[in-house]
Amino acid sequence: MEAFTGLSPRTNSTTLDKDKNHDQDFQDSHLESTDNGDQQDRHFHSMDALEILRETVRILRYNPIGFLSIAALLICPVSTVLLSNVLVDQSIVKKLTFRLLLLAKSSGLPLKPVIKQSCQKFSEMVISAVMCFPLYVSLLLLSKAAIVYSVDCTYSRKNFDSRKFYVIVTKIWKRIVVTYMWVCMVIASCLTLFIVLLVAVSSGFSVMGFPPDLILYPAMIFGIIFSMILANAMIICNIAIVISVLEDDAGPEALLRSSSLIKGQTQVGLLIFLGSTIGMTFVEGLFEHRVKILSYGNGSSRIWEGPLLVIMYSFVMLIDSMMSSIFYFSCKSYRMESSNEESLPVLEALTISSALAEVQ
After folding, report:
1. CA–CA distance, 96 with 91 (Å, rounded to integer)
2. What is the pLDDT of residues 46-77, one digit of tens each?
3. Fewer CB within 10 A of the end CB, N or C, for the chain?
4. What are the φ/ψ torsions at residue 166 (nearest 5 degrees)?
5. Which residues cross the membrane (predicted)?
6. How many degrees, rounded to 5, is the angle at CA 58 between CA 55 and CA 59?
7. Are 316 and 276 a contacting pair, CB within 8 Å?
8. If DSSP codes are grouped into helix, strand and coil, which group holds residue 21?
């Protein structure tokens, strides 16, 4: 049994690559040919975003069936509902959009197309999040836990065991859900705070006598600044979910642990988040244009383009979850290497305790 299961990506990946000696790419990417290679391994350096992407591809190649099965069984249903907006009531979206437009007008913002589109997109996002919440808290959350467990198994040189995963999930599911609820509250609080502050800033400029067209520019600058803050919050929330799976922390403790763990690595997390967001937005735009708006006469484009875009969206979500897991392992390994800590991973400890209980 490994004492450092899942806690040192590069060190464990080197061992993993030795087992997979038929793949020259794996060996060339990690093994050191110099005599001081072991010394370099002991001085672990955190990965940048590109290295994390490469590590994600290597892990996906190592166990493609397992990860793609997770995407097909757990992520695809969520992607289908999310892209199609089948659960979203457009009448509610219109009412919420109208109220947001009234709020924007009362604060002095001009009702230009960019404002109208932003209000409509925000309304759709809010209603979709509320209506799809049962899917998020079940299938999507389970897929994240399965991905984290699979990545941990890869670093441990173990096969994904569905029975063992079931035992582990039954023990940690409560803390995963609690953490996810706190994540939802954090994101909802950030968005609410954004709207309140945006209205306050716009109203302040309006009271000072600025014309609506000029008020739009400081509002846009404020929106850009807040987007960066929201991106940081999203990174902390994503890593908090991983922490709730791999460690004993849950809820606000997981969020605080995540904030502490990624300190100094925020730029890497931002690049990961930016890449995933661009990928998802691109697929969403294609689905909106090719499937919802455009169809070939009899609607035949929906028959093959819709499922293809759902698969693409699910794959992007899979890669995003894998990269978040590897980012956690990278930060964890770097900090443990710096402090010379040694600990038995929570998942391994749960497995041992379950096995002992069965023996007794």
Report:
1. 9
2. 577 888 889 899 999 888 888 999 999 999 99
3. C
4. -60, -45
5. 65-88, 133-155, 176-201, 221-246, 267-287, 307-329
6. 85
7. yes
8. coil
Closest by CA to 144, choosing from 35, 58, 239, is 239
Which H or E run contains 25?
A: helix 24-30
Cβ atoms of 259 and 235 within 8 Å: the answer is: no
Cβ(245)–Cβ(145) under 8 Å? yes
Are the CB atoms for 239 and 266 separated by under 8 Å? no
**Neighbour count for residue 298 (Cβ, 10 Å):** 8
Interatomic CA distance for residues 310 and 303, integer angstroms: 12
Residue 15: CB atoms within 10 A of its CB come to 15
Output the furthest CA–CA distance in the chain (Å, rounded).
Answer: 77
**pLDDT tens, residue by residue, 104-130:** 888 888 888 888 888 888 998 999 899
The C-alpha atoms of residue 1 and residue 115 are separated, in whole angstroms, by: 58
CA distances from 144 to 109, 151, 284, 288, 329 (A): 40, 11, 21, 26, 15
**Half-sphere exposure of 146 toward its Cβ, with a 13 Å CA cutoff?**
23
For the chain, the C-alpha Rg in angstroms (whole number) is 23
Tokens of 266: 């925020």
Write down the H helix ranges in 47-161.
Answer: 49-62, 64-70, 76-84, 90-106, 113-131, 133-135, 141-155
Q: What is the rounded CA–CA span in Å between residue 281 and residue 181?
A: 24
Three-class HEC string of 154-173: HHCCCCCCHHHHHHHHHHHH
Q: Distance between CA 246 and CA 285 in Å, rounded?
A: 35
Q: To the nearest 5 percent, what fractions of the chain are helix, strand and coil?
A: 80, 0, 20
Taken in order 271, 276, 282, 288, the sign of the CA dihedral is negative
